[in-house]
Design brief:
The chain is built from five helices and 25 strands. The protein is α+β, with helices and mostly antiparallel strands and 349 residues long. The chain folds into three domains: 2-38 and 256-336, Beta Barrel (conserved putative lor/sdh protein from methanococcus maripaludis s2 fold); 42-52 and 175-252, Efflux pump adaptor protein, beta barrel domain (Elongation Factor Tu (Ef-tu), domain 3, Beta Barrel); 89-144, no CATH class. The longest helix is centred in the C-terminal third of the chain and has 22 residues, at 315-336.
Length: 349
């Protein structure tokens, strides 16, 4: 028995050619593979907090009795210049009298020293001016708010005795506020300076804008998240401490990356692939390795080069046709690529 060799076709199995008419009918649209930073969005839930750097303890530099309070409960909003409390203190009264005596005798050196002592004891400039102009003792020394604030904690009560160094109340700014968010460790990286959009709860359509101020380095082992701190302007007091809000952080990846639209990727659970446009109406299916992804774009790590054109529409039709073409090519190759074909020779009887 003799054998005759037969060879398979050399035509590529994962390429197909489409006429211009078919391309137009299918509505095939291609986009170029670009290079640059990837814009990403990270969604997270956070909690509104006071700006910790703005928290201020109002304490006494001299013992005395709080005879009148200008605020009454935690959570109360106070304006700049609003009365916080009035204090009666024999020690402060003595310092006042020394200042008035210096003024009476026009002793410049004593005036300077006694005025400085008043400031060291906590007297405000407005109270010292009142002493200078009226030349009368101010029995109950007033203390005023230096900025618009919220009362975080109120410890004193009207008529209570307060020793030196005792905190009367704790104040904090209400604009801006902090929003602490929890970020999944699988989320795209965010950095200080990234823009954040804060959405209010309970279906409230209003939103405010802030920026990422700090990203904490530790990951919570239980939730596998790490925290970031947002600084958010709060002029209308829409954000209230301890309120739960949602946030969208918009950032850009560092460095240059190849990018294609998410809609250009075919995913079947096994491998990611795209359809690339070649010359003369030819198309080919190519496997790709993908990286970071945003809502509309994805980074390509392997499989494409800058300037390649990928199909963004009708990709499943072209992919199916290419797969069918490849399958038929394999069938043809399987039937034609046998190493030999047996030939029968008749034997004389």
């Amino acid at each position: 028995m003799d054998y005759i060799p037969v060879y398979a076709s050399e035509t590529s199995g994962n390429e197909i050619a489409l006429s211009d008419a078919v391309v137009q009918k299918l509505g095939v649209r291609t986009v170029e593979v670009t290079e640059g930073p990837l814009a990403t969005e990270t969604r997270a839930v956070g909690t509104v907090q006071f700006d910790a750097t703005s928290i201020r303890d109002i304490s006494l530099r001299s013992e005395g009795w709080v005879e009148r309070l200008g605020v009454h409960a935690p959570g109360e909003i106070i304006e700049r210049g609003q009365l916080l409390f009035e204090l009666y203190s024999p020690r402060l009264e003595t310092a006042e009298q020394e200042y008035l005596n210096a003024l009476q005798f026009s002793d410049a050196e004593r005036i300077t020293l006694s005025e400085q002592r008043l400031r060291d004891l906590g007297f405000e400039s407005s109270t010292i001016n009142t002493l200078r102009e009226s030349r009368k003792l101010v029995r109950r020394i007033p203390f005023y708010a230096s900025a618009r604030s919220v009362v975080v904690e109120l410890r004193a009560r009207a008529g209570s005795y307060t020793p030196v160094g005792e905190v009367v109340m704790r104040l904090a700014a209400i604009d801006p506020v902090w929003v602490t968010i929890d970020i999944p460790q699988s989320a795209p990286a965010i950095s200080p300076g990234d823009v954040a959009e804060i959405h209010l709860p309970n279906g409230d359509s209003r939103k405010v804008e802030g920026r990422v101020d700090y990203v904490y380095s530790m990951v919570d082992p239980a939730s596998r998240t790490r925290q970031a701190r947002l600084v958010v302007a709060n002029p209308g007091r829409l954000l209230v401490p301890h309120m739960t809000v949602s946030a969208i952080i918009r950032s850009q990846s560092s460095g240059q990356s190849l990018r294609i639209p998410v809609s250009a990727v075919i995913r079947d659970g096994q491998a990611d692939r795209v359809v690339i446009a070649l010359d003369q109406g030819r198309f080919a299916v190519r496997a790709v390795k993908l990286g970071m992804e945003s809502a509309s774009e994805v980074v390509v790590l392997e499989g494409l080069a800058k300037g390649d054109r990928v199909v963004e529409s009708a990709i499943f039709l072209i992919d199916s046709e290419a797969n069918l073409h490849a399958a038929l090519a394999r069938l043809d190759a399987g039937s034609a690529c046998k190493s030999t074909v047996p030939q029968q020779h008749s034997q004389p009887h």
